[in-house]
Please model this.
Amino acid sequence: MAKRFTVSVRSGGRVRKERFDDLRSALGEVDRKVAELEDDASARPVGGGLMRRLEPVQQVVGRVELTGPGRLRAGIDVRGDGSSEAFTGRVRRELVNQKRRESAVDALRRALA
Model:
């Protein structure tokens, strides 16, 4: 049986992909990879001279994407300050609103349920 879900991790110019049989396993891997990226996030402000200044919260330092059957496209962006936000879609991206005390991964799980 072919693996149906793909988790892609983009960080520091590298892309790593893993395949999974079911959504639950794939979301578990998303959770692990997002936690790793959040722990390592430590961007500094850039710009301010000729270009506008970008604070760490405005910089995406890593992205974990999930693709699967039925045009499933979703993921989580990890910001330079260690925060993260979930999204669905690829070309037309829609942010997933996080509820109070809900992690980005939990918000993504809720959106995909």
The chain has a mean pLDDT of 90. Strands lie at 5-11, 14-20, 60-68, 72-79, 84-88, 94-95. The two ends are 23 Å apart (CA to CA).
